[in-house]
Amino acid sequence: MLAGSRRIGFTLVELLVVIAIIGVLVGLLLPAVQAAREAARRMQCSNNLKQLALSLHNYESTYKRFPAGNSGSGCRNSAICPTNTTGRYRISGHVFLLPFIEQGNLYQQYDALNSAAWSGNAYWTPQIQSLVCPSDIQFRPVANIAITNYNYCGGDAATVMCSVDELGDGRNCKNPRGLFGEYSYARMGDIADGTSNTIAMSEHTTPSGAMALGRAAIVGGGRTDTPAGCRARFVNNAYTVAVNTDVGTRGGRWSDGASLFTRFNTMVPPNGPSCMEADNHWLGGMYAAGSKHTGGVMVAFADGSVRFISQNIDSGNQGARESLSGVSPYGVWGALGTKAGGEVASEEQ
Q1: What pairing do the DSSP bridges indicate for beta strands 91-92 and 296-301?
Q2: Is residue 314 part of a domain?
Q3: Which of 101, 126, 128, 264 is most buried when burial is the number of CB atoms within 10 A of its CB?
Q4: Four-CA torsion 265, 267, 271, 272, nearest 10 degrees
């Protein structure tokens, strides 16, 4: 080395300063990057819901009615039907929309299927990407049954969110307040409240694990509880009463038309808790719409439009028991769930 020459480079202090600056910049940019990613995921989720809304209209154009919340060619009486076919009456609306979401080949296989929606048959295994929201965790509780994040609106009442109507207490699952019920095929003319004021579908989240809160608290019969009573069972992000641990999770079976899996009602506002009716094998109850989007959920209306609904939307009297006729007691949110409640949805959503 020549005399008087100096080594050119950074000192330790200078390196530490540069590293600190880079760290600050990353800290500033990371939230923006995460927000941009969530915005893209939310847009994809909205697009999926839009495609499902369009598929409902295409189905209606073909058959002059909407699909049912659950239906099928099976039989519910295991005493007179082979066990593996008894579940074919509880097939979700998603299955019947397959030809209208570019899954026609899969639907053709369903025609030859002789299996219940919960059977674990390989037919139910493939995950249909248009049925999941990329913002969600997408927990799959049963390895051989695919999930869904989108469900059908049963209206603003819990007692019609079931899968049988021979329960001896006057409820009628085939006559829902909303668009979708058991073997209930609503027509455009049935939507007296207007298609732009009637919810068809929305989102729900899957739990983060097998024992997480995607399950529903077990409560009393649907007519003995209220949305406020359901919320009281959910304190500090934990249920204070028993949680069902064996039937599955919200969205855990895309193929199953039971309310827990593919339906919701507009009693508890968006992103609220869900409560399952006790002693109801068919999983009736109060099931809230929900999402991982900040502040609300994406909702598809009967006119085919998709809008973001705030979780702070007016939900009326949460201490009121359900009404099976007339104006919804659950405010704007309840009114949007009914197809012929006679309400006027005049507030900003």
Answers
A1: unpaired
A2: yes
A3: 264
A4: -130
In a domain, 10, yes or no: no
Residue 260 lies in a domain: yes
Give the span between the Cα atoms of 191 and 214, in whole angstroms.
31
Q: What is the DSSP letter of 188?
A: G
Q: How far is 312 from 149, CA to CA, in rounded Å?
A: 21
pLDDT for 183-242, tens place per residue?
889 999 999 999 999 999 999 888 766 544 455 666 655 555 889 988 888 877 667 666
DSSP string computed for 259-328: HHHHEE-SSSPTT---EEETT-TT--EE-----SSTTEEEEEETTS-EEEEETTS----TTPPP-SSSS-
**Phi (first) and psi of residue 323, to 5 degrees:** -120, 135
How far is 274 from 147, CA to CA, in rounded Å?
18
In a domain, 8, yes or no: no
pLDDT digits (tens, 9 = 90+) for 160-198: 666 444 444 555 677 889 999 888 899 999 999 999 999
DSSP 63-121: HSSPPPSEE-S--S-TTTS-GGGGGGGGEEHHHHHGGGTT-HHHHHHHHT----TTS--
50 CB-contact burial (10 Å; exposed 0-12 / middle 13-18 / buried 19+): middle
The total domain count for the chain is: 1
Domain that holds residue 253: 17-337
Q: How far apart are CA 209 and CA 181, in angstroms?
A: 29
- pLDDT tens per residue, range 74-83: 665 555 555 5
Burial class (CB in 10 A: 0-12, 13-18, 19+), 147: buried
| Pairwise CA distance, residues 271 & 311, whole Å | 6
